Every structure is written in structure tokens, then in C-alpha cells.
Amino acid sequence: CGEHGGDPSTIEFCHNIGLDYVSCSPFRVPIARLAAAQAAIKAKK
Length: 45
Known about the structure:
mainly alpha
């Protein structure tokens, strides 16, 4: 439970539909933060 929240494609999907929060296990936080930043940059293009 919650492991989908750390998946980069899930984070991009959540960003695209307007969600601003995902939950993931602690070891996936760095990956999730990077994916969130990449999704935000990609959305601005």
C-alpha cells in the first residue's frame, strides 16, 4: 500500500489531474520528489 505513490509515472499522472500530494514509503521520497519536479517542468512546456 502506498508504493504506487513513489512511481514516477504515477506521480506524473497525479500531477496532470491536479493532485498535489502522494504518499510513499520513506526510501522512495527522493525518487518521488524528483519525479514531481520533472512532471511540473514537463507540464510547463
